[in-house]
Fold:
Amino acid sequence: MPYSESEVTREVECIRRVQKGEGAAFGQLVERHQQRIFSIVFHLVRRRDEVEDLAQEIFLKAYRAIRSYNFQSSFATWLSRIAVNHCYDYLRKVRASRLSYYSEMTEESAHELERKAESPPPQGLDHGEKLALRDFVGRLLARAPEDDQVILTLKELEDYSVEEIADLLRLKPSTVKVRLHRARKRMLADLERWRQEGK
Amino acid sequence: MDCKELRDLVSELWGGELSAEAREHLSNCAGCEALWRDARLVQAGLRALAEEAAPEPSLGFASRLVRRLQEWQEKGARSEFFETVGRRFVYATLALTLALLLSMALPTSGPVRGVAGADFLGLQSHSQSSQPDVIGGDFGDSHELTPGGPTD
Structure:
């Protein structure tokens, strides 16, 4: 969401007050950015019950690090970077349990889900079918390596541009493009492999 | 166009329009056609995921967070205070203990017992005057140093 000049000025003042130790001013920053952070966290970790706790941890981290914020990038980008890194660590931590979840899921149920998702043409999905497809692709995304999850989520779910992702992840735009391309390829290959394993 | 080129194109275009050449390849290649369908399926799924709204922050999320921050700051300041005071107390106790140990250990570790300890404590004169000399004590002195032996 683009900010007006006065909003930016207000935000800068607010950040400076927090940097001087005025904790109460941080509340204004939280209110301004909480929606964006909740969205990033939710799309990355896909667990409603964890979103608020993770968001809280992210804001606490940001508060502790706010003196290092030097206004080089926008505060939204700086904060989103903390959120992405925090979620990345979370995804790595839960990876083991997630894998065991998949191993517990019977092949039959996984492929039943896939059949449901594939049966109608994607354009004409009714509500239930859309939910099945969403669930299926969500699981496919969760199987991907953490780096792929982050880059695909930022691009496909959070609708960030290649340049914004590059700024956020401190990468060159050309590197982001290559990583996106590879992540998509890996996801499709994984889907193919999953299907073949079921045959 | 071969299969590898088409696979690259599918991941690169990702939802964009395929060229006539690519479409022709798809019509003749079942494997690539399946991949193209998969890509569309995944894209539709990702769109559906993007539409899913994130949960709203619960009422008072920001104010609760600020309260927690303030508690954390107070706790931090308190623990910093106790840490500093505690550290000084520990240092003082250690220094005192070390001084006591030294005062007790040095007399017994010197080459001459008793005298060294007395030196250390500044009691040399008192010690010398009150302690009987094993070589020439009161009895020895009176006995050995009597000139001419006992007088009858």
